[in-house]
């Protein structure tokens, strides 16, 4: 791909991610209002997030294969269409069953979009460019979260359901942009990505357990588990513990997303070049564990604000570091790895909110204690993760 076309394509991918995650971020400040309006418990909210993740888990391996078979572009477009429909349903839903259907469709959309975008970026970048590109990808996601909650807090003034309809419109815009301007990438083969022949791994899902993959997948699971437990109940936590308003919650998420995006753009490429993806992942786990636990002991408005803004930095570096590592070792299995990446993330997103929601109903600090424990387990696993040899 020509350098100019590469820049345009990359910009389009980042723009689409930005728009779709603005749509997701829009709804964060109004979740406590929806919870109170429909008289839902923390457990139900946790199950609702888990429904999203279960759908993503089931569909992700299939979607990863489809991204390799049918193309990256079509999967991105279909995912955005399904996302738009899911947001409309959530905005219209007045019974809990409709909200669950909406979240299931949202999980399907995520399973379509993320593996395809990750594989798309792997196709259009060299191994040297990939860490930086994936860092920008994560920054685009986080920047969407920066803008989204702020806009959502403002739109909530016109009604708690308005942000969901706004998210549907943004996703529709992303569909139009992708359909008109995005061009299917030329796939890289093993011969073009590496001059060394590497033996094939076992066919099928048995490849998951290969040493070259399994540590990365396990750490994806533990990081997504702890992040989902933390993030899915975050707005409820600060609402119940500190009586924060939707505007306060929007400021918290915006500040955290901004700092995380800055860290990814300015630091991620340099950190991975100097330390490597494995050490960056381990350091990020340590930082996340310390700050998640700190959230349970801070007790003033400004200490909560500062801790909340910093806590996302560690989490924001974990996923791009692991994704960068996987994309480098995956060779021509980028769609498969993207699907497995999404699947293990979904596994964490299932169990994190469910267990977190149950613990939240007992004591609103308990989900964060448990998330800290899971991060500590991830740190122990990370200590045994070593860089593979050149041969698989």
UniProtKB/TrEMBL annotation:
Localization per Swiss-Prot or TrEMBL: Cell membrane
Cellular component per GO, a single term: plasma membrane
Keywords tagged on the record: Membrane, Transmembrane, Transmembrane helix, Transport
MF terms in GO: xenobiotic transmembrane transporter activity
Membrane spanning residue stretches: 12-32, 44-63, 75-95, 101-122, 134-156, 162-182, 208-229, 249-268, 280-298, 304-322, 343-360, 366-385
A Pfam family of this chain: MFS_1
Source organism, top-level taxon: Bacteria
Record's bilayer topology term: Multi-pass membrane protein
Major facilitator superfamily (MFS) profile domain: residues covered: 9-390
Gene3D superfamilies per UniProt: MFS general substrate transporter like domains
Record InterPro entries: MFS (IPR011701), MFS_dom (IPR020846), MFS_trans_sf (IPR036259), Sugar_transporter_CS (IPR005829), Tet-R_TetA/multi-R_MdtG-like (IPR001958)
Family the entry assigns: Belongs to the major facilitator superfamily. TCR/Tet family.
Protein name (Swiss-Prot/TrEMBL): MFS transporter
């Amino acid at each position: 791909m020509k350098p100019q076309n590469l820049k345009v394509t990359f910009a389009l991918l980042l723009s689409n991610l930005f728009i779709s995650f603005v749509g997701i971020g829009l709804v964060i400040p109004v979740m406590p209002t929806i919870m109170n309006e429909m008289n839902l418990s923390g457990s139900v909210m946790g199950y609702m997030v888990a429904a999203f993740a279960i759908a993503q888990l089931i569909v992700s391996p299939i979607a990863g294969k489809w991204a390799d078979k049918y193309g990256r572009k079509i999967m991105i477009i279909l995912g955005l269409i399904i996302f738009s429909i899911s947001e409309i349903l959530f905005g219209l839903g007045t019974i809990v069953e409709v909200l669950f259907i909406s979240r299931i469709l949202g999980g399907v959309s995520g399973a379509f979009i993320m593996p395809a975008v990750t594989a798309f970026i792997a196709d259009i970048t060299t191994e040297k460019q990939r860490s930086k590109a994936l860092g920008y990808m994560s920054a685009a996601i986080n920047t969407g979260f920066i803008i989204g909650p702020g806009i959502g807090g403002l739109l909530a003034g016109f009604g708690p359901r308005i942000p969901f309809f706004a998210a549907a419109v943004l996703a529709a815009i992303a569909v139009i942009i992708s359909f008109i301007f995005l061009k299917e990438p030329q796939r890289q083969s093993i011969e073009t990505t590496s001059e060394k022949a590497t033996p094939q791994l076992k066919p099928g899902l048995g490849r998951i357990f290969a040493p070259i993959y399994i540590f990365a997948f396990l750490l994806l699971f533990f990081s997504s588990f702890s992040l989902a437990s933390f993030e899915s109940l975050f707005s409820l936590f600060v609402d119940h513990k500190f009586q924060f308003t939707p505007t306060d919650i929007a400021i918290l998420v915006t500040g955290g997303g901004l700092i995380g995006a800055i860290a990814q753009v300015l630091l991620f490429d340099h950190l991975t070049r100097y330390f490597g993806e494995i050490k960056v992942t381990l350091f990020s786990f340590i930082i996340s564990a310390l700050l998640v636990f700190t959230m349970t002991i801070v007790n003033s408005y400004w200490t909560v604000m500062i801790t909340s803004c910093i806590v996302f930095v560690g989490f924001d570096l974990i996923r791009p570091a692991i994704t960068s590592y996987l994309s480098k070792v995956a060779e021509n299995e980028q769609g498969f790895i993207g699907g497995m990446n999404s699947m293990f993330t979904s596994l964490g997103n299932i169990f994190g909110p469910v267990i977190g929601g149950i613990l939240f109903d007992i004591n609103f600090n308990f989900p964060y204690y448990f998330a800290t424990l899971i991060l500590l387990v991830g740190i122990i696993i990370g200590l045994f993760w070593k860089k593979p040899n050149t041969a698989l």
